[in-house]
Amino acid sequence: MFQDKKLLSLSQVVMFGLAYMTPIIVLGTFGILAMVTSGAVSGAYVVALVAMLFTAHSYGRMACAFPVAGSAYAYVRHAIGERLGFMAGWAIILDYLFLPMVIWLIGAAYLNSAFPVVSTTIWLMGFIIITTIINVIGLKLASAINGVMMLIQILVIVAFVALAIRYLLVDASRPVFSLEPFIGTEGVTRALPMLMAGAAIACYSFLGFDAVTTLTEETRDPRRTMPRAILLITLIGGLIFVVVSYFVQQAAPGGLFTNPDAAAYDIAHNIGGDLFVSVFLIGLVVGQFASGIAAQASGARILYAMGRDGLLPRRLLGQLGRFGTPFGGLILSGIVALLALTMDVLSAASFINFGAFVAFAMVNLAVISHYFVREKHRGLRGVTFFLLFPLLGLLAIMWLMFSLDIRALSLGGAWLGIGILWLCWLTRGFRNSMPVLTSLSSA
């Protein structure tokens, strides 16, 4: 990836992680979260942040123990075993394969709100076709303007918050400071189940905090840098989500919107008028477009690596096209995205989160297996960092997982079932060792 090994510093890794998370997504999913939590979006993000910090701690510990690329697949494979490692990788494939679908669906929903004469289907097809063509040809242009795209997102977010605060100061009926964005309109006694359901969806905004582990072999002093970077990315991203959602929720209390999938569009119009809503739409579409390019490219390259190493069909996914890009994986990603025509943002994001939760749970278990069981770190520090913290992370992740809607659990369970059947085929009924994904697990 880089000509000079060990090139990246802590700040560069943190910026990469924040860019991958796409901060403007807090506005893109605001209406969905407000509907689910009855107006407690900030509270949902606080719960999600706490859960993610425990899991981020586990990712940092595993990055320190195994400073290689590969994320959950490599960590679980090294710490527990190759078969569970494969299942962790299979769960991550769900994220990488279906994440572009959700990104494009959100962008299409907002464009449809702005231009209702053009159906969501047309916008969605436009996202799929244009992004796939760019990725098939190559990413030099997209890489060159990635920093500009990130700057546009930040400026739009800052403007949105500033206009929301001005709106609150002008409208004397709404206080600037209130607990309502944290507990909702239903009261404290009914807040917990709604907050957990909202947090299970809010975790979608954190997807990508672990993506920096793919840069481990290009990072200076990775055993020290990676754990710090992962925690900083999670904390900074989470604080952005909490603060932004707080002021937006204050400017638009409750959870009732005409179109929850694109609620921030109406809110932008209400607080900033016609000019700002245009600026907001440009910022959100730019953010979703850039994120979609990166997500599809990353997913296709993982599919290519797994196909090349024999974990997936080699002829379909394990070969590069004429432009040197993973043509099969990119086309498959575009085809899978067509499922968005039958799904809404809530169902699609919940399905994505299921795969992430499975991988996160396994990484928490990997910390216990490696440090507490194998390495026998049993003192006070060991019990705290290598048993208590990952257990809390595991329990939080499992709670969030079972707070997902039944459709997401059913689809996610089916995905895991397919993975087990594929693993059975690869190992000839679990009798043989399985191929190793060399590009993601090399020591």
TrEMBL record:
Tree of life domain: Bacteria
Compartment(s) of residence: Cell membrane
Spans traversing the lipid bilayer: 7-26, 32-54, 87-111, 117-138, 150-170, 190-209, 229-248, 275-299, 320-342, 348-373, 385-402, 408-426
Pfam families given in the database record: AA_permease_2
Topology versus the membrane: Multi-pass membrane protein
Keyword terms of this UniProt record: Cell membrane, Membrane, Transmembrane, Transmembrane helix
Signal peptide, first to last residue: none
The name this protein goes by in its record: APC family permease
